Amino acid sequence: MSGADYLARLNPEQRAAVEAVDGPLLVLAGAGTGKTRVLTTRFAHILLQGKAYPSQVLAVTFTNKAAREMRERVAAILGQPAEGLWLGTFHALAARMLRRHAEQVGLNSNFTILDADDQMRLLKQVMDAARIDTKRWPANGLMAVIQRWKDRGLEPNAVTPAEDSDYAGGRATELYVAYQDRLKALNAADFGDLLLHVVTLLRANADILADYHRRFRYILVDEYQDTNLVQYYWLRLLAQGHRNICCVGDDDQSIYSWRGAEIENILRFEKDFPGATIVRLESNYRSTRPILAAASGLIAHNTGRLGKTLRAGRNDADGDKVRIVSMWDSVEEARMVGERIEAARRAGTSLSEIAILVRAGFLNRSFEERLIAIGVPYRIVGGARFYERAEIRDAMAYFRVVAQPADDLAFERIVNLPKRGLGDTAMASMHAIARAESIPLAMAAARALETGAIKNARARAALSELMQGFDRWRAILPVQGHVVMAQTLLDESGYTAMWQQDKSPEAPGRLENLKELVSAMADYESLAAFLEHVALVMENDEAAEGERVSLMTLHGAKGLEFDMVFLPGWEEGVFPSRRSVDEAGDKGLEEERRLAYVGITRARRVAVISHAANRMVYGNWQSQLPSRFLDELPASDVQREGAAQQARPQGSVFAGGGMFAQRPRRMIEAAAWEVKERPAAASVFIVGERVFHQKFGYGRVLAVEEDRLDIAFEKAGEKRLLDRFVEKS
Fold first, then answer.
1. Which of 533, 563, 585 is the C-terminal boundary of a domain?
2. Are 453 and 464 in contact (CB under 8 A)?
3. For site-directed labelling of 346, which of 149, 326, 460, 662 has its Cα 20 to 30 A away?
4. What is the pLDDT of residue 317?
5. Whole-prediction pTM value?
6. Are residues 66 and 176 in the same domain?
7. Mean pLDDT (whole number) for 582-590
8. Is there a single domain that holds both residue 490 and residue 590?
9. Is 656 part of any domain?
10. Active site residue 602
């Protein structure tokens, strides 16, 4: 391809970034501005201009997919594959370096890279040897502490009192030392070690560092805003030679602090590399002008940014304003989203071009059920469907045993969850009794207690407590109802406490999902009705081919784009997340705002933001305050809809307060949405009407009670269902 060909495709900003070859360069690439094109074209341009051989360019990405794409695009511009490239992820390139110099850090060149499972097993061995109570201090919590230290470039001897942790009774650093010693004894490294060891050897060996300075004439870095400290140290060390480092990133899309990313890395680029050139890519080729204006107006409220303003680069940039829809409650919010998806589908929009982006995974549940009810296929991107999550399956197994003591599969799943000391021997005893007497496993467990078949006193006491618990929970069911029973069971069984004590990053989300599960149960008149509903939901064919709506978290949506995007749950405490703001203060709030910016800029043509005045939380309806982010969207670029927004108090209620300052009590009392439960809505169905259900087929309405219907199905018999799960035939 001639020079005119590959440069002619670039706009002036992109071309400036490609041609500014020598010296440090920071490319601030806004959403949809063509950063991948700039990065790959710059790579090819360096080679075509004879500035370096392929082996003299170090190109770093965050994913293998991005590395493959860069390799293919560079080859397309060059007209042939480029051989000998140092192109890959941080970990892949660090591993390549480490194998060349492994002896410098006490390893052999054929060292093993442990996967997550092997890392955890090794750490458990270290903790057992140190006599650490792993029930009180789970191994995955300690692993999170150690990986955080490694992300910050800290070897055990570099952990200062300020960086130390009180995990495991203040023995975390001691265990870190032992863990690293065991790794070296096994000639192994974990993923965190790859960069940590390379940074250590480059700092300690000037000759090795000088060799890499001679080797790499140019360094290219993608997604620089997502780098952590050890990645930053590695890049800075390598760039000290020629200083020809080009970092491409967007400070407004730095949303991974929980994964160790440091936004300060990109903010201090000019200080790290005096005289650096800054090029801003601001022409967005993805979204319409109102969407870009709304996103830019929102992110402008952040102070920790270098600053840029997106503008539409498309010829058809005019479009609808961003909609802000105010709903009475989360049920109506899900109904609204479902109706608009159906309308878009009828108008010709592909379901694959529609996405629902939520702040937290537990919010997906109501949308999943609504889409199932109206027969719209969907997929969960980056995670399991709600009822397929491990913690939900565990809780459902407990509920199934309450409802049906003979459910052996459910009982076996939870009898030792959380850990009750029931090992293989105890389980074998119960199974032997069940087979010999042809009785359910739960009954066999009771018989094992009676006969003393379980020898371990601790395990025997724990199993006895569990069996008594099931008797107690069954007694609660007819008196206080299935919602109270579920809350009590999860607490008394120790299952909730298990996740509360878990220090892994996933644990808070699992607890939120359990709360959402209990909330979901309130929509059903009995435990049996709920269990039947879930069984039907689980039969929804996830593997079905064809177009599907995408459901995912905002974090999982980064890098994707859709014609139509729904952004529900914009309420204080939900988005911005109360936990994020409480833990990180202003920095946490600014990252939440960047996450909102990412969400809006996923939309090409239609963006619908919604919030509910009431949301079911842990089985109770709670009044919700609209997100502060809604007030920060420029009024000229949004269109407000929905009755609930009429009652929304004007002006900010947060000035001068904390991160989640409360409204004065008199304002709360005056708010139209201050309710304790969702008001009953008259059903749109009438007795005798013919209806259709996705699972049960066709039937006729026998009786109507608010939003509940008694239906005689042609093949499935009589059922009682919520009206939102059927449609008129």
1. 533
2. no
3. 326
4. 66
5. 0.71
6. no
7. 90
8. no
9. no
10. yes
